[in-house]
Hints:
Elements (H helix, E strand, L loop, with lengths): L9 H12 L1 H8 L4 H13 L5 H16 L8 H27 L14 H7 L5 H10 L2 H8 L4 H12 L6 H14 L13 H9 L4 H14 L1 H10 L11 H9 L3 H9 L3 H9 L3 H13 L5 H20 L5 E2 L5 E2 L1
Antiparallel strand pairs: 1-2
Amino acid sequence: xxxxxxxxxxxxxxxxxxxxxxxxxxxxxxxxxxxxxxxxxxxxxxxxxxxxxxxxxxxxxxxxxxxxxxxxxxxxxxxxxxxxxxxxxxxxxxxxxxxxxxxxxxxxxxxxxxxxxxxxxxxxxxxxxxxxxxxxxxxxxxxxxxxxxxxxxxxxxxxxxxxxxxxxxxxxxxxxxxxxxxxxxxxxxxxxxxxxxxxxxxxxxxxxxxxxxxxxxxxxxxxxxxxxxxxxxxxxxxxxxxxxxxxxxxxxxxxxxxxxxxxxxxxxxxxxxxxxxxxxxxxxxxxxxxxxxxxxxxxxxxxxxxxxxxxxxxxxxxxxxxxxxxxxxxxxxxxx
Length: 336
C-alpha cells in the first residue's frame, strides 16, 4: 500500500475530513448519507485519537486537490459530483451517497426502518406472518437483514430465509399488508414495489453476514427442504478464499479501501494462497511490514478473524456494485 493519505481507507479519510469540518458542516453532510454509512462513519470518528496535524493536512490537501482539479465549466454536473465524492470518501462510502443525490428520489417508507436498531425491527414484525418478514428483510441492506434475523428463534429464522430464497416478485396483497403494518408505526404512504434482486442472491448476501454457526444451521435446513435451491444459494455466496479469483487490479482496488488493522486480523486466519495473493499486490516494503506484523501478532480470537474477513468481503461487494471489481462465487458465478 502506498504512502501518506492514500494508505488511509476511504472511511478513515472521511472521518478525519468530517471532524476537520466542524460539527455544523459535518451534520449537514451526514443528513445525506445512508443509515449504515452514518453508523460506520460514526464508529470510526469515535475511535480516532491523537490524529497528527500532518495526517490531517494530508487528508485535507488530498480533498482540496481533488476539488481544484475539477470544474463545472464544460463538465457534466453529475460527473463532477460523482468524481468529487469518490475522491473525498472513497468508492465504498461514496457509492450510496452518489445514488441518493443523483438517482434516488426522497426516501420514505421502508427507508425509515434502516434507521432502527435490528432488535427494534425484529420486535415490530415478531408477530407478523413470516412472508411479511421475508419481504421486509429483502428490502434492507444485507448486513442489517442479517442482524435482524439473529433476533428471531432458530425455527422461525429458517422459515424466513427459505421464503426469501423463493421470492419471485411480491404479490400486491403482500405489499398492502406491509404498508398496513408500517402505517401503524409511521404515518405516510409508502408506495412499495418489488425488491430488485432475486431471492437466491438476497439470501446468499445475507448469509455472508451471519456468524458461521447460524449460517450453517440455515444452510443445513435449506438442504433438507430443497437441495437444488440450497446449492444455488451456496454457489452464489462469496467467501474469503474467493479473493483468489479477483484479478490483481481488483485486489489493489480492494486494498486501498481496507484498513491495515482489519487486513492484519483477517489474514491471521487465511490460507497461505490468499496471503500470497495479498502480498503480491502490495509494494515490497508494505508486504514486508505486513509479514512482520503477522509474525509479531499474538493469537486472535476466531470470532475477530471472521468479523474482519466479513468486513473485507462487504467492501469487495460494494466495489463490485460500483463496477470497480468483478467477484466470483463458489460456483464461479460473477457478480457485478
